[in-house]
């Protein structure tokens, strides 16, 4: 039947569907990522669709399109099944997509009333469409987005409800502890120094090492420390896959003596401490040689505890909001804004570097903030009317309420303040970091997380104070992104980005790495394609945010709130005449 030729999420080779693509990758191959993506499943329902059939109701189908990053071309991603004779379809077939927090994935849902078996959409009646981003769906309350269907002038086309569900790819970890009894003595002068090696079996019968315990010195009855391992690493999520455990006696020269081995599986281990989890350690060579050989000791499982790793999306689904603040450098080194050489030059035909960085990062983060109100600050300028220098002023001119509506509102306030303030100096970061830190310090319960974007042209003047501010902020629910624009040397910024050496101030180290620095010039596309530049920039600066976010939640022991109850479509009761 029409719509069933192609399962959702599997675009047809050639034809209107284009080549099969990963959901989140456009034409630009550098944007593909080897990191296993989070997969989300999209479910689609509609209410009050247009009725295009004369004698019955419409027979709707939903077609999903994704947009390539470079050329903005829409490509068919997949189709649902057709549901006959309804204006309120709950489509069974799902769309499974790769989800990256740091990428903007534009989506288009088209709806048709199917009139024949033809796969050609132009042969069917168009019922309207809905545009959104994947981030908008995920960032909505309970990851459920409800939007009006548009596209037919003068007609109410109904609404569409899209729900995103993260697909569990075995996010469990286990905490296990083992001990052994009466292991073979391998050392001439002392007892053995035993350790365990865990290996998982592969499809071809070979084994891959997945864990080594520590060495317990000089004992035949060791108790090893408890260790944590992901279920994926232990058995690749296959509970019946063979797990081999080898027991060795440690030797200083690395020629460890083999004591023996046993096999088990995740399913067996998950029974916990019991007679089933006492294993005989067998040395096959000894067993073959000695008739009276029983074993080379026993290994016992002492404890087995399953922990489910929570993801960034679990918190978003539970209602955590991401608050985005922008701080822009208004120091004189940027150059006179009325001159084309200035980094703040307002070119009527294209965004300057500040505008591009702001839009690239802001357009992705705004999907995770329900009120879309963003504080926008400036630093390093002289303000009217008295010319005082400020390192923390509201771009909209209202210090009591520095919030701007949406990224477009921030851009507007930025352009307005360029006309009213005088670029000055020095370049101080600490005041804007402390500004956001004050807000972050007031909500440490995991309900909100703060991201500060600082866009600057140059060398920082208050390095010591900035380091101290960052070390203090590392205890708070916040991350800092610094984008360097212009040709300056940004060596000092690399020091703030704690990727190589953790930042410290007065002997105190930052609790976690919260700063990500990138120079904008690394992202300028030689072909002049600013869309690609912005996509690459956003990808790099935002990629670390989910892990920084999770590191805060983990350190504080904050668990995600349960998601609101899933949406259940209203049941249409048929009233029958008695």
Automatic annotation (TrEMBL):
Query: CDD domains of this UniProt entry?
Result: C2A_Copine, C2B_Copine, vWA_copine_like
Keyword entries, A-Z: Calcium, Metal-binding, Phosphoprotein, Repeat
The protein's name is: Copine-8
Q: Does the keyword Metal-binding apply?
A: yes
From which organism does this entry originate? Scytalopus superciliaris
What does the protein in this record do? Probable calcium-dependent phospholipid-binding protein that may play a role in calcium-mediated intracellular processes.
Q: Which residues form the VWFA domain?
A: 323-524
MF term (GO), any: calcium-dependent phospholipid binding
Which classification does the entry list for the species? Eukaryota, Metazoa, Chordata, Craniata, Vertebrata
């Amino acid at each position: 039947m029409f719509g069933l030729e192609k399962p959702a999420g599997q675009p047809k080779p050639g034809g209107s569907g284009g080549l099969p693509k990963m959901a989140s990758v456009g034409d630009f191959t550098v944007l593909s990522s080897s990191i296993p993506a989070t997969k989300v499943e999209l479910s689609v329902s509609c209410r009050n669709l247009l009725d295009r059939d004369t004698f019955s109701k419409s027979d709707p189908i939903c077609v999903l399109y994704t947009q390539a990053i470079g050329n903005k071309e829409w490509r068919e991603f997949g189709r649902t099944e057709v549901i006959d004779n309804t204006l309120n379809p709950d489509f069974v077939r799902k769309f499974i997509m790769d989800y990256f927090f740091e990428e903007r994935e534009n989506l288009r849902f088209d709806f048709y009333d199917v009139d024949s078996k033809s796969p050609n959409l132009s042969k069917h009646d168009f019922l309207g469409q809905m545009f959104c981003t994947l981030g908008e769906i995920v960032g909505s309350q309970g990851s459920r987005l409800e939007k009006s269907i548009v596209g037919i002038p003068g007609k109410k086309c109904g609404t569409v409800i899209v729900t995103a569900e993260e697909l569990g790819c075995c996010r469990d970890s286990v905490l296990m502890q083992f001990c052994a009894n009466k292991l073979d003595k391998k050392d001439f002068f002392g007892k053995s120094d035993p350790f365990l090696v865990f290996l998982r079996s592969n499809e071809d019968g070979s084994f891959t090492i997945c864990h080594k315990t520590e060495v317990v010195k000089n004992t035949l009855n060791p108790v090893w420390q408890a260790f944590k391992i992901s279920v994926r690493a232990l058995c690749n999520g296959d509970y019946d896959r063979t797990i081999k455990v080898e027991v060795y006696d440690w030797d200083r020269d690395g020629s460890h003596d083999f004591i023996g081995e046993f096999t088990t599986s995740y399913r067996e281990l998950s029974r916990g401490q019991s007679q089933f989890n006492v294993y005989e350690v067998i040395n096959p060579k000894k067993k073959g040689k000695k008739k009276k050989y029983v074993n080379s000791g026993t290994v016992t499982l002492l404890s087995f505890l399953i922990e489910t790793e929570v993801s960034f999306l679990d918190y978003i689904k539970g209602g955590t909001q991401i608050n985005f603040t922008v701080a822009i450098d208004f120091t004189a080194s940027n150059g006179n804004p009325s001159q084309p050489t200035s980094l703040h030059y307002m070119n009527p035909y294209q965004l300057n570097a500040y505008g591009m960085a702001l839009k690239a990062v802001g357009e992705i983060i705004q999907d995770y903030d329900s009120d879309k109100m963003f504080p926008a600050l400036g630093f390093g300028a002289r303000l009217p009317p008295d010319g005082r220098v400020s390192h923390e002023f509201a771009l909209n001119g209202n210090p009591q309420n520095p919030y701007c509506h949406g990224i477009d509102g921030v851009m507007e306030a930025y352009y307005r303040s360029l006309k009213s303030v005088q670029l000055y100096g020095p370049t101080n970061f600490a005041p804007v970091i402390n500004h956001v830190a004050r807000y972050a310090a007031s909500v440490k319960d995991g309900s909100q997380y703060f991201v500060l974007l600082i866009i600057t042209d140059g060398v920082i003047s208050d390095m010591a104070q900035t380091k101290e501010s960052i070390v203090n902020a590392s205890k708070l629910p916040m991350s800092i992104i610094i984008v360097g624009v212009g040709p300056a040397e940004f060596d000092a910024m690399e020091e703030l980005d704690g990727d190589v050496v953790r930042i410290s101030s007065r002997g105190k180290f930052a609790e976690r790495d919260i700063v990500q620095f990138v120079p904008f010039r690394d992202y300028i596309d030689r072909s002049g394609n600013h869309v690609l530049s912005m996509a690459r920039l956003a990808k790099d600066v935002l990629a670390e945010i989910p892990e920084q976010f999770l590191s805060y939640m983990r350190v504080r022991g904050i668990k995600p709130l349960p998601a609101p109850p899933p949406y259940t479509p209203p049941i249409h009761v048929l009233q029958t005449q008695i």
